[in-house]
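In this section we walk through a basic example: taking a raw amino acid sequence and producing a predicted 3D structure, encoded as C-alpha cells. The instruction is simple. Fold the sequence below.
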Amino acid sequence: MSKQENMFKDQINVPRGERVDIFDPLAFLNFMNMQMIDETKLFVLFGETRKIEMSGREAAIAQAADRFKVFANPVGKSREDRAIPVVSGLSGIGKTRLMEEFETIFDMAGVGQPRFGVIVSYEVGHNPQPVEQSMRIEASFSWRLLYRVFIEGNGVDFIKWFGTCLPVNGAGLTLDTALKVIRMKAESLGLIGENGVFHMFLGVDKYHYIEDVKGIPVSHEPLLQDLINAINGVVASPVDNIRIYPMGACKNLSVVSNLRTQSIRLPMSFLSVAEMERSIESIPCGLNLLQQAAVRRHLFYLGGVPRWFTQYILTLVDKVSESVDKPKKAFQCTEAQYINEWGRVRENGRRRHLDQIEFIKLAAYSFSGLKVVLNSKDIGNLSWAHLEGSVCLINDNCISIPYAIVRRMAGYDSIDFTDRAVKCFIECLKGLVETVDKVMYEKSPWQLWGVFGAYLHALRINALLIIGKDTVKVRELFEGALINGCDQEVKLRPMLLSSQLGPSVKRKGRVDEVHDYLQEGIVVINGENGQGVDLFFALESTQGGYILIDDQRKHDPGEQTVTNLIHKALIKPNIQHVSVTIIPCLFSCCSSFSLTEIPKNSIVVSYPQSKAYHGSMWIHPAASPYINIIANKKTYASIVELDDDLKSFGACIKEEEKERIVFAK
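The resulting C-alpha cell sequence is shown next.
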C-alpha cells in the first residue's frame, strides 16, 4: 500500500465528530442527549415478557446467580471469586436468550432495585467499524455501550453514527465515565434516586468478533483480554453507586478460555422433550398443542435446540392455516429454515457444508461416549474447538449433536459407502427411526425401551469402529455406567439388530439356524418374556473365546438386591466347545445403587447414571421407560396411568422431583 493510500486510510479510520469534554459529566450528558430523537427514552432492558417461557436452564441461572452475589459486594473478593460467567455453544442453543433472563438471575442472587440491563453486541448490524481501530478496546466498547443505551432505535444508524458522529477525541473515553453518564441519565428520568445504587447487567454478545475490531492494544495481550481487564477493574472497584454484573456469550468457549483471565462456563445442553413441553405449556394454547401426538413427536425430532422448537411452535400458532396438516406444515417450514441448512463450517476463510462422511464421523463421536481433545483435528482440517461454535456442543469434552441431524443421517443410502461399520451405522439409524421414533407417543416408553437400548449398543460399537477403535475394554462400551471390573479386551465388529436379519438367530448350536450371534455382529432382542435377559450380544475376546453381554431391564426391581438381579442375568447359552464369559448388565431407571453393591465384572445403569451413560441420546424419550411430568399432569392424562407408589425411586431422586415422575403403564 502506498504512503498516500496509508494517509487516506488513517484519515477515514479516526473519529470525525465534534470535540466533546468527556471529562465533564454534565457536558458529556448534554452531548448524548443531543444525539437522541426523544430524550425521554432510554434503551435499557427490564424484565421482558416473552411469548414462550424459557426452561431447562436452571443450572446455568443458579451458577450465574452465585457470581452475581459476588459482583454485588466485590470488596475483598479474589479474582477467581469474580470469575465472569460465559455461555457458549452453537447457534440457536439460547445464549442471548439466557442473558435476557438477567432479571431471573438478579432475583436468585438477591440483587436490589432499581436494576437495568444492557446487551452490547458485535454482530447483526453492530459489526466492528473502521474507526474503532484508532482507539483502545475499552474506549470503543464504552462508545458501543453509550450508543446502545442512548441512540439505538432513537437516533442515527449505528454504522453512520460511528463513522460521522463519534467525537474526534473519543479515544479517551473510559468505561467508568460511560457508566457515570448512564447513571446520570437514569437519575434525570426518575428511574433512580440521587443516592440509590444503580445495578446494571452488562452483557457482551458475540464477543468472539472482538479481535476483528483491530483496536490499539494496551499490551501484547489480545483485545478481549484488555476488555475483560477493564470490566473486571470496574467490578473489583465499583464506580460510586454503580454495580455492574457482566456476562459474555459467544459460539466458541476457547476464545476466552485461552486468555489469562478467570471465567466460569455456564452449562448449556440440548433440551429434553419434557423441558420443551414445559416451555410450550406457558402459552395459552400450549396444553391443547401437547395433546397432539404429531406435535410432541415433532418437538422430539427438533432435537432440543431452543430456537428450532420455538420457531416451530410460533409458526404452528401464527402462520399456518387451520387444517389437519397444520403440525406437518409447521414442521416442514422449520426443517427447511434450520435443519436442512445446518452443517456449515468456516475453513480457510470460506464457508462450506460438511459432506456426508464428515457428518457420519461427527455423529460417531457423539455416540461413542469418548472425550475429545479440543485442538485435535478429527473432522477434515477443523479442530473441535472450531466445530463447537457451528455444528456441535461440547460439554466436559464430550460431543453432542442435535437429534434432528441424527435423523437426517438416517436418510443416507448405505450403498453409497464401502466401509462395513458405516453401512451398519446407517442401517441402525434407519431402524431406530422406523421402529422407535415413528411410533413415539403412540406407544408407552417402556414398550420401546428395550428396542432403543439394542440400537444404542449397536450404534456405539459401530461408532467406535468409524473413529478407528477396533479393540476396546468392555467397560469402554458403557461409559457413564457403574462398572465393577469389566477390563477384558474385545475385538469390535460392525453390528446390526437381530430383527433386521430375520427372526432366526442361532443360540444353541443348531445347524438349521441361519445366523450365529457369536460369529456375526448381532444385537439380539430376546423377544417377549425371553428367559433371563432382554438383550444380548457377543464380541470376540483378545484372549480367546467370547464375551457375552447380557442386558436385563427392570422397570421396578422392588425389594430385590442388585446381586440377585445380576445373578438372574447370568444366563449362559448352551454352546459346547466355545469359551464364553458372561458380563451381566442391569438397567433399572428407578433404583439407586452404589459401586460397592455391584458384583465383580458386572455393569449397572440406574437413575443417577442414565444421563451420563446415554450421552447425547439421553434426551430421547425411549432412553427411559418413564414419563417425566414437569409442570402439568393434564398434558399426559390421555396417555399414561399414574402410579401412586413412588417409594422405589429411593434417595436417588430429589424430594421435589418425586411428584413429577410417574410410571407409564
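Looking at the output, two observations stand out. Residues 417-651 form one domain. The radius of gyration is 29 Å. In the next section we compare this with other chains.
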